[in-house]
Amino acid sequence: MKILSLVLIILSSIIIMANRSGRSAVSGNGATTAPGESGTHCGSFGCHFSGSFDPVASIRLLSTDSMPVNAYIPGEEYIIEVNADYTGNPAGFGFQMVALKSSDNSGVSGYENLPNRVRSVNIGNRQYIEQSNILEPKPIHLNWEAPEEGTGAIDLYAAVNVVNGNGSTSGDGADTTRLQIIEEQLSNTFELASRDTRIYPNPASSIVNVQSNQDIREIIVMDISGRKLLSQNNAQKTIDVRGLDKGIYILILNYSDGTRESSRLSVQF
Questions:
Q1: What's the pLDDT score for residue 102?
Q2: pTM passes above 0.70
Q3: How high is the pLDDT of residue 51?
Q4: Long-range contacts of 109-118 (CB under 8 A, 24+ apart)
């Protein structure tokens, strides 16, 4: 058995449409089974529908270090991984994908650096991503930047079409999938529950303040892999993060009594 993994970096969804060009180019339609479409896809309306290869589509949202996450932070960069497992020996595949706000089904964009044979097509107020020609059966990566704060939950719709490359739509297989990701809320003030301690602002762009009735011996900032980036003993309980890149960090507070606490810190400029 051969298994194909399509790795797509985006906040969206996928559908593998025609043997060559995507459904948007062929008919000007979206076919991911997202709301507002006809509800059909290439496995249901007369093409690529024979059921060959038994494809099973799935989507995951990944951080830039390839860790699975179920929520996005506004303005951060992510990877959308779309997998299509199948049997047999297909010649390649095609796809179409779209990301929509859960609240009103309007389109969400943010795709960057599309790979070869992959293009963006606008249909109405939605941005679809699809193949411009048959794709080799190997991972595809699409970069995606999360939308602005207040966008809310996002639904990713995808459909995958695995083809035999015989020049017609016979003998192919298709599948669809959907994933919802929520917006992670970041407060301008982070309160540690176990102590009377506040960290603000968060997100931060310059100076981070730590307000506490406890005696703090040291403030440390680490990256998400645990590497120490900043450390200082500061009676004023502040730390300067202007030398850091935009991203998510871990702020550690070492108290004088030997205990410590940590919180996530978002740095944005």
A1: 95
A2: no
A3: 67
A4: 109/147, 110/10, 110/11, 110/144, 110/145, 110/146, 110/147, 111/10, 111/12, 111/142, 111/143, 111/144, 112/143, 112/144, 112/145, 113/142, 113/143, 114/142, 115/140, 115/141, 115/142, 118/142
